[in-house]
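Run folding on both entries below.
>entry_1
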Amino acid sequence: SDNTYFFDRSGKAFSFVLDYLKEKSLPSSFIESERHQLLDDAHFFEIEGLLVELDVVPVLVGTNTEVVLLNRTEVLENLGKNSRLGKMVLDDSESPPYTIK
């Protein structure tokens, strides 16, 4: 084994992932049109901080093992701060993915 890894990901979006891992914030060169691919990469690599930076929260719904990515701002606006999910999103003591049954 030569310890070589191959990730079949978008090179442009992956550069933002690497920048985030180095700086812990989105680079000033971030392109909004890359948001969808960057979200996909952040979820693929399980980078919770980047998901938060992109204003997204991962949620497990019911007994399903698939994670749904929800926009944090939309959750708070549509469900409210007092909803079960809203409270979880605002409470830093529980880390994502949040589970809704």
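>entry_2
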Amino acid sequence: ENLRLAMLVRGIKLNDPLAKRFDTKSGGNCGAGGLCRTCAVSVVRGGELLNPQKMAEEQMLKDDTPRWRLSCKAFVGYGMKEGEMTVQVNPRQW
């Protein structure tokens, strides 16, 4: 299950207003295209349940904390793993 969609369906607000787009360095949402970093979350626990980062995601988040993931590019249950996760939404605001 896509992490971004799972959170939105459950009423969790994303789109960090402090985030700057990777492509234009301005604000704004890319609509799950993986270009803006506004849906970045900090994975506090359960990171092993997510798919590995692809090179583009690693590049966009290289200056941030290693626990961060783009929720639009993260899939929960990778490798049929089950468990519990704790994610922090809008980590730039903490």
